[in-house]
Design brief:
This protein is α+β, with helices and mostly antiparallel strands and 171 residues long. It contains three helices and seven strands. The strands form three sheets. Strands 1-2-3 form a three-stranded antiparallel beta sheet, with no helix packed on it. A two-stranded antiparallel ribbon has the order 4-5. A two-stranded antiparallel sheet has the order 6-7. A hairpin with a 7-residue loop joins strand 4 (77-80) and strand 5 (88-91).
């Protein structure tokens, strides 16, 4: 656990190179295959969040699918988070996206934290038991969404619409 005082940086990661792109964090699976990275471009003062996309990691590549129908199932919404009632944002409810673009959603709807193997487990508790807060309430395990996973669907839909427009213009 890394903690910082209010209004302070919790952590700063520095790479000494002053030009070029550098990997700051690398995420690997159990087979040591890189799944993603967080990198910096020191010359451009920018950060990139990268999911592995190399063709050598993929098979059964299919360019022919109906993105428009899937996209129309998404339900963008305007809402505020309970913790910040004064700020309205645009986004999605993760559980509503999970059946349409499952790779964009992490976690299960209405889940709670449970004790897992290799964790410190209090006396009287076992692997699989719900974790409780100081008031004895189950601790929610909230779903998350990686909205960048929706971009391929958006691009494919634009391509499909462009094709339909061109076809109508040439009719």
């Amino acid at each position: 656990k890394v903690k910082g005082a209010q209004n302070n940086d919790v952590a700063i990661f520095v790479h000494k190179n002053t030009s070029g792109s550098e990997t700051m964090f690398r995420f690997r699976d159990g087979d040591q295959t890189t799944c993603g990275t967080i990198g910096i471009d020191t010359g451009g003062n920018s950060v990139s969040y990268n999911t592995s996309s190399d063709y050598r990691l993929k098979e059964n590549v299919n360019y022919n699918f109906d993105a428009t129908t899937r996209l129309k199932q998404l339900k963008p919404a305007r809402f505020n988070f309970i913790s910040n009632a004064d700020k309205t944002v645009d986004g999605f409810l993760a559980h509503e996206v999970s059946s349409i673009v499952p790779e964009a959603v992490q976690g299960e709807k209405d889940a709670f934290e449970k004790y897992r193997e290799h964790q410190e487990i209090p006396d009287g508790k076992s692997v699989g038991d719900f974790k409780l807060d100081e008031n004895g309430n189950k601790i929610p395990n909230y779903q998350g969404i990686d909205q960048s996973k929706l971009v391929p669907l958006l691009v494919k839909t634009i391509q499909e619409l462009e094709s339909r427009i061109t076809e109508l213009e040439n009719a």
